[in-house]
Write a structure and sequence with these properties.
- The protein has 2 domains: 175 residues, no CATH class; 176 residues, Ribonuclease H-like superfamily/Ribonuclease H (Nucleotidyltransferase, domain 5, 2-Layer Sandwich), CATH 3.30.420.
- The relative contact order is 0.11.
- Helix content is 35%, strand content 14%.
Length: 382
């Protein structure tokens, strides 16, 4: 019992909301491995519980973000594949029988969480990638998906298994059970997508249009968790468009795969700068009144802490989330807003991310200015 109520040990929900009776037991031939973000493991609206209750071959691995694992986990078979949208992903319905994955890995969490899992685990990128054909929109009415075509974890697994093994008895009950689970929850919470607290308006944030020229945009690549070391620092100074690229020599072991993931040559990393030389270069590059801005604020905080600095920092992701009531990866936001990014002369992944950061910063500055102008014309104090 928890909080005084009896709980189901199978689906880990209160017995009054147990979902085990909503689905049949399905003897799936393709093992499903769910790699779950730790925050999703604690979320009461997650759908993986339904998969655990229904599928006879379903393993859930809650990923510890501090692990920093570079090697392929032992729970993966040699024929494992990843269900994840990417440019080189192959559609499951277009595979020959011998090309189908023997084990299907699925990431569970919000889309930003899924991107985090993917970015921090190079072994995921090394797996064959598969995707689903176009289909009906998600029925996950109690949590908003970034796009209509995006699916909940249980919907994605159901559609994948329907393609890989359509004759398996009981698969239809998975979809039906999901619909009934959502209906139950909707009756409990009331109107779909109801917010208990209104989101703070964009105008409550500092006016970015007045800070744009003082921003120094940074993107970092590190050695991985735990105890990450800075490996590649890229910076773009908006006041004069100057760039800086610093590659640090690691003090601890780092895998070659991780270095290749950063888009750097192994010898350049092994012959990188010392921490003292990096500190001196950053001190020369960042103005006294400069503000360090990154996509995620914790990246900027990690940078200034490891370099022993005390610069002001901001996170553009938070500012965008308050402006649009939506978020996602940096690439996703740039695509959503149709932002163009002019290339810069900085190598590796850092050189790909800095132009996107600049485009988003300029977009937010214009949006902030426009938002304040509208507020002033309406006599609203922002």
């Amino acid at each position: 019992m928890r909080d005084g109520r009896p709980w189901c040990s199978r689906c880990t929900r209160p017995e009054s909301y147990c979902i085990c009776n909503l689905v049949e037991r399905v003897s799936n031939r393709t093992p499903i491995t769910i790699v779950q973000h730790p925050r999703e493991a604690r979320h009461h609206l997650g759908t993986v519980r339904l998969l655990r209750a229904a599928l006879s071959s379903c393993e859930i691995v809650v990923h510890d973000l501090r692990d920093g694992k570079e090697a392929r986990p032992k729970y993966l078979s040699s024929g494992a594949g990843l269900l994840y949208p990417s440019e080189h992903a192959r559609r499951l319905d277009e595979l020959a029988p011998e090309e189908r994955p023997e084990q299907l890995v699925v990431l569970d969490g919000t889309w930003p969480h899924a991107h985090t899992l993917y970015d921090q685990n190079p072994w995921l990128e090394a797996l064959p990638h598969f995707t689903l054909p176009p289909g009906p929109e998600s029925n996950y009415r109690i949590r908003k998906e970034p796009r209509p075509s995006y699916l909940s974890t249980v919907e994605a697994v159901f559609r994948a298994l329907s393609i890989l093994e359509p004759q398996t008895p009981g698969l239809a009950s998975l979809q039906l059970g999901f619909t009934q689970m959502i209906d139950r929850q909707m009756k409990h919470v009331g109107h779909p997508r109801q917010r208990l607290r209104p989101r703070a308006p964009f105008g409550r944030l500092p006016p970015l249009e007045g800070q744009l020229q003082s921003l120094v945009l940074v993107h970092i690549e590190h050695s991985g968790h735990p105890d990450p070391e800075l490996i590649h620092i890229g910076a773009l100074r908006l006041c004069d468009e100057k760039t800086l690229s610093l590659v640090l020599r690691p003090q601890k072991a780092i895998s070659e795969r991780r270095i290749l993931h950063m888009g750097l040559a192994l010898d350049r990393v092994m012959n990188g700068l010392s921490l003292d030389a990096t500190q001196a270069a950053m001190a020369e590059f960042i103005p006294v009144s400069g503000v360090v801005a990154s996509w995620r604020q914790n990246a900027a905080v990690m940078l200034i802490e490891q370099l022993g600095r005390s610069d002001a920092v901001i996170g553009l992701k938070t500012m965008y989330a308050n402006h649009r009531a939506a978020t996602g990866s940096l690439h996703a936001v740039a695509k959503r807003e149709s932002l163009s990014a002019e290339p810069i002369d900085v190598p590796g992944r850092v050189g790909q991310m800095l132009p996107l950061l600049r485009a988003v910063a300029e977009f937010l500055a214009v949006a902030s200015s426009r938002d304040r102008a509208v507020g002033a014309s309406e006599g609203v104090l922002r």
